[in-house]
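From the pipeline queue, job 12 of 40. The input is one protein chain; the requested action is below.

Action: predict structure.
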Amino acid sequence: MDNALIHYGILGMKWGIRRTPKRLARARGRSKTDEIHEDYKKAHTSKSIKSMSDAELRSRLNRIQMEQQYSQLSKSNVSKGKKYTQKIIKAGTTVATVTTTALTIYNNVGKIKAILEKKG
């Protein structure tokens, strides 16, 4: 009888996390189902502009412009949410500051009265 400890895990794998093929692909940043669309491939090839026909150039420009418009629209929605969140955080910080100041004054009323009586 041979006493041996054999490990069948994946190197670098965290405890309690199960890795299925889909999760492994997602962890690497790509999925088997996420393939680059043919239109994207056409618009982002390294083909020379001089060798393209008018139709090819037009379709490439159209695709790239649509991608830029989409990214700008997505960014504007994010920036609106970011501005709203920043306003809320700023308001919360102001409330916290006012509350802290009020509590400090309330807790030190006796000391403040003594200081004012010495001056008066």
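Job complete. The chain has a mean pLDDT of 81.
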